[in-house]
Amino acid sequence: MANMKIGFIGVGMMGHGMAKNLVEKGFRPPSSPQEPCAGRRPGKRGAREANDVAGLVAASDIVFICVTGSPQVEDLVYRKGGILESARPGQVVVDTSTSQPVRR
């Protein structure tokens, strides 16, 4: 399990801490379309910035969504090139936001 590649969308206060802890426990470095500590080069812990959501999803076994709420989660999931369009069978997506769990 620790060899799985993880990706984070939203690396604010919560996402950054979660990603840091997972990397320190041996998971492969996270990626994020918005990772402030990584830029385009590997960060101190090996994190890399993805170009877009589709690229992050393609490069990850587990995708963590760490955004504010329902509108942001729905946008990430349902937009063109978003999570739903880019995900593959068996991939895990974890929503850590306070979004409403309503199924479309």
What is the fold named in CATH at topology level?
Rossmann fold
- First-last Cα distance: 31 Å
Specify Rg, calculated over alpha carbons. Answer: 13 Å
Query: Biggest sheet, strands in spatial order?
Result: 3-2-1-4-5
Largest pleated sheet: 5 strands, parallel
Order of helices and strands: EHEEHEHHE
Report the CATH C-level class: Alpha Beta
Shape: globular
pLDDT average, as an integer? 79
DSSP, total strands? 5
Number of domains: 1
Low-pLDDT stretches: 34-42
Characterise this structure.
By secondary structure, this protein is an alpha/beta fold. The protein has a single domain (8-37, 46-95), classed as 3-Layer(aba) Sandwich (Rossmann fold). Helix content is 31%, strand content 19%. It contains four helices and five strands. The chain has a five-stranded parallel sheet, sandwiched between helices.
Write the layout of secondary structure elements.
Blueprint (H helix, E strand, L loop, with lengths): L4 E5 L3 H12 L3 E5 L15 E2 L3 H7 L2 E4 L4 H9 L4 H4 L5 E4 L9
Parallel strand pairs: 1-2, 1-4, 2-3, 4-5
